[in-house]
Amino acid sequence: MIISQEQVLAALRNVEDPDLKKDLVTLNMIKDLKIEDKNVSFTLELTTPACPMKDMLKNACLNSIKHFVSQEAEVTINITSRVTKPMDSTQLKDIRNIILVSSGKGGVGKSTVASNLAVSLAADGAKVGLIDADIYGPSVPTMFDLVGAKPSARETQDGKTLILPIEKYGIKLLSLGFFADPDQPVPWRGPMASNAVKQLFNDADWGELDYLIVDLPPGTGDIHITITQSFPITGAVIVTTPQQVALADTRKGLAMFKMPGINIPVLGVVENMAYFTPEELPENKYYIFGKDGGKELAKSFDVPFLGEIPIVQSIAEAGDNGAPISLNTESVLSGAFAEIAGKVAQQVAINNAQTANC
């Protein structure tokens, strides 16, 4: 039997991306199709290297060709990715997606989630940057073992000076903590703080990035408004803990992104410190702060629930030691953050596709 390109493409039209609700051929995700006798090879180009369904889609392609073309076909599928971006993101054009990590409440672990989200996305092969925009309590220098580090700069051909982000663990990093004495408070008024944060975006040499993660300060103040109204934001990840005192503030923080003057898509909710579990007894779960608060918050706003992160001593130790827990691939916690990162990337791809179709 002679296998033709038309037969293969017709077979692959039966494989639908479950998120984008269209077949892979229509989505232009099939590249470099080659056929020699019974040997069929092509590249499956996903919308993110962190796609949680890559194996499912690969197997679906293989089964579809076997079923609709020939059982004797020898199929080779190479998987690659091209991260999508919102249609109107002409500003900061080399940065495909800006993702805010936010909460209306301090102390819920935003910086831990932001750092491990960045590490997990980079581990999947994405080009990732991380901005620590928490001017009053910058945590990135500590969490990446960069306390006292100072970024260098370079001058462009037109005479402009650009800050060079510090690279560590495959991530480009900038924090307001790099420019201040770690032992001194930063008593800046709103406009001064907002201008400093804008410089981290506009005056830095970020290069090409698939995702720029932004760790926001607590609350719903000047920094939040400045960033959401000055830059093309793809979406926000909301971090909360289960207890009502945290949820009350987080609810306001989430609602801010849905205000008409801001209107930023909420990619989902992460429930941090969801339960306590001893590392030596991972099956034991103690819901010391209550249960399912994050899930109920996501449900009430009709946004995705991205996952739970337990209270485990090693998470805090890893952050204090300057090596986020997601770097430890043997830890089950690394898997938990990787799953959340995959869901975030999934929501980014869905939102970008919806924007493109508007």
In short:
The protein is an alpha/beta fold and 358 residues long.
In words, what does this structure look like?
- This protein has ten helices and 15 strands.
- With 358 residues, it is an alpha/beta fold.
- The strands form four sheets. The protein has an eight-stranded mixed sheet, with helices on both faces.
- The longest helix has 26 residues, at 332-357.
- The radius of gyration is 22 Å and the shape is globular.
What fraction strand?
Answer: 15-25%
Overall strand count: 15
Structural class: alpha/beta
Order of helices and strands: HEEEEHEEHEHEEEEHEHEHEHEHH
N-end to C-end Cα span: 43 Å
Helix content: 25-40%
Overall pLDDT level: 90
Continuous helix count: 10
Shape: globular
Low-confidence stretches: none
Strand order of the largest sheet: 10-11-7-12-6-13-14-15
Provide the gyration radius in Å.
22 Å
